[in-house]
Amino acid sequence: MSESRNSKSKNTICVHEGQHIGEYRGINTPIYTSTSFGYLDTDERLYPRYFNIPNQKVVIDKIVALEHAENGMIFSSGMAAVSSVLLTFLSKGDHCIFQNGLYGGTLHFVNRELERFGIEYSILPDNEPESFRKAIRKNTKVVYTESPSNPLLRVVDLQVISKICRQHQCISVIDNTFASPINQNPLNQGIDIVLHSATKYLGGHSDICAGVVVSSKKHIERLMQTSISLGGSLNALMCYLLERSIKTMAIRVEKQNHNAGMIAEFLVLRPQAERVYYPGLKNHPGHEIACRQMTGFGGMLSFELKGQDITTFQKRLKLIRPSMSLGGIESIICAPVTTSHRLVSKKQREEEGIRDNLLRLSVGIEEAEDLIADLEQAMGE
Q: Thinking of the domain 250-379, which architecture would CATH place it in?
């Protein structure tokens, strides 16, 4: 990344980086809805599926700057980004290591798809560095992490993981969705490839489905070849909406960090919250690591509800809405067992530590006091 980009604040990068000035010099990037572009007198072949139209480039320029990357790609969903990365850097006979406690969609893809491509994999029993080291094989090509993880907010020491991968010539990949580029930049910790479900904090308004991958030019060139064939690109209109959303991401995430911290502290004191999972809490197992590698603890937290039916509790909420997904400006809550991890077997959920009474809370930008009051009235005495 250039020195000039390094000197800019994230708020400034969110607003200004990558802006495309059109013919009439409007303040916003024009939306190029064309799927057909002229090609005479130029070597460039613009086409949405080639990930190279102007609206795609603008979004990537912003995220590349925020993540301190060299290049990147925008996809039609987070899972399109995940699957494209795995199918690019893993081939028949290769082995991949996955940390404990991944997003249910990723786990479903791993369990359902990798074996039929002849790809071996290991899902770790825990996320201790020694477990990663012991899992390394001669054919290990990729180590895949997610930190903080979905839904238990587990934190992995990214510097240690990147060091292990370099020692064994593996590619390190992280899903950075829960942190967002505002709270964490894994490439600075030595990680090779960073991906996001841009549906979440990058989009931020619960109206865009997209995914992002950023890395070195070398890795993105390789990813591009596979992804063009897989066809998971994003159209110009969605790219425009995503660019608009990113402009406010830093201020949104800062507020969400603040609110989530206050709510986590409130829940710790409530007897109805049996366990609270939030990396900003001092008793969180990954708190010290999070303090080292994150600039904010994020807007996501989970808690186990004690002595109450989780469905009834959600129905009693008046401000926080029971809904799927996360990262929007509004606060929403869900039970992973019936949403994000519904397609994961009960046995595997139990092994991951995801209990039936777990609730995942995506904290929005409302006033924290209002959200706490809503949780308090739904919990009762």
A: Alpha-Beta Complex (3.90)
Q: Tell me the residue type at 69.
A: A
pLDDT digit string (tens) for 315-342?
Answer: 999 999 999 999 999 999 999 998 878 7
Structurally, at CATH architecture level, domain 3-246 sits in 3-Layer(aba) Sandwich (3.40)
Q: What is d(CA 57, CA 43) in angstroms, rounded to the nearest whole number?
A: 17
What's the rounded Cα separation, in Å, for the pair 150 and 143?
Answer: 17
357, 272 contact by CB (below 8 A): no
Q: Are strands 140-146 and 332-334 parallel, antiparallel or unpaired?
A: unpaired
70 burial type by CB count under 10 A (0-12 exposed, 13-18 middle, 19+ buried)? middle
Q: Please name the amino acid found at residue 77.
A: S
Instruction: Count CB-CB contacts under 10 A for residue 307.
Output: 10
> Could you tell me the two tokens for 216?
């070195």
Q: What pLDDT, in 10s, does the model give residues 182-229?
A: 999 999 999 999 999 999 999 999 999 999 999 999 999 999 999 999
Classify 36 as helix, strand or coil.
coil
Residues marked as catalytic: 49, 103, 175, 200
pLDDT at 26: 87
Residue range(s) in the chain whose domain bears CATH number 3.40.640.10: 3-246
Q: What is the pLDDT of residue 283?
A: 96
The predicted model scores a pTM of 0.95
3-state SS class at 325: coil
